[in-house]
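Batch job 17 of 40 flagged for manual review because the log was empty.
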Amino acid sequence: MSYETDFLLGLYRRMVLIRKFEERVKYLFLEGIMPGTIHQCQGQEAAEVGVCWALEEGDVITSTHRPHGHALARGLGVQEVMDELFGKVTGCCKGKGGSMHMGDLAKGMVPAVAIVGGGVPIATGVALAFKMKKQPNVAVCFMGDGAANEGAFHEGVNMGAIWDLPVVYVVENNLYGASTSVDLVYKTKTISERSSAYGIPGLTIDGNDVLKVYETAREVIERARTGGGPTLLELKTYRITGHSRRDPALYQPEEEKAQALADEPIGRFRKCLLDLSVATGEKLDEIDAEVDRQIEIAVEGAQAGTDPRPEDALEDLFVE
């Protein structure tokens, strides 16, 4: 396919934004400046951006305990996400969600579900609502490889399949569920093979190729939107960071990590843009610098932001 320069640079900028955001946040936590805990997504940017770029207004995603990239890819603002991490009232969830529960349904993201596999039945339910209301929208459920071994996965995917719901189940297979290799917990060669048990299509692709992810996601999302039902889409990627902020990832073999760094999505896409003369190195460096400035402004704004009051804990409650 041929793409406009602005489209390609938009993909690059969003992936760089996610990477630099995560790197800045990592050090804010390690320095004790930011509260709470984090699970980060460095190395998985192409999967997040490629899928979200294929969505339309009104479509909805569900996320995981690793949601920063999904939030930024779906279009939440850098400031509101940073504010949320600092627990400020101006955060996307008013400082009540923090790292593992951020989102904004008005912008197409259900606040993230930290329970492994917990987003699968929720995305299925969102898709059911779309179908019952005859809305032309699609739900996309992001999950990690570990989630596909949870009971909620099997129940949720089966329901989506038998009712032909407009939902796409996206497995970001970063090869490790916490510190456990997928080789120890799957007998199949791919996770997408499990789709055959539910009678739906299953695809496994290179999750570090942002254009391949976008093109494939666009196809399966359109299939769901036009009544074709769910797809199980496995994106092979790699987490080039620990499972959480205190994890040195010593279980990842050095040779494996070196190969992952050589194959990480931003460097690959940057090389592609340069090789195709879409942009010069100077232009891409300029984008990188703009993102750095944007993140620093967000950090300063969040640190100066307003903290919630104790009585705010009594607001935004569902009372039957």
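Reviewer: the log was empty due to a logging misconfiguration, but the result itself is present. The chain has one domain: 5-301. Unflagging and moving on to job 18.
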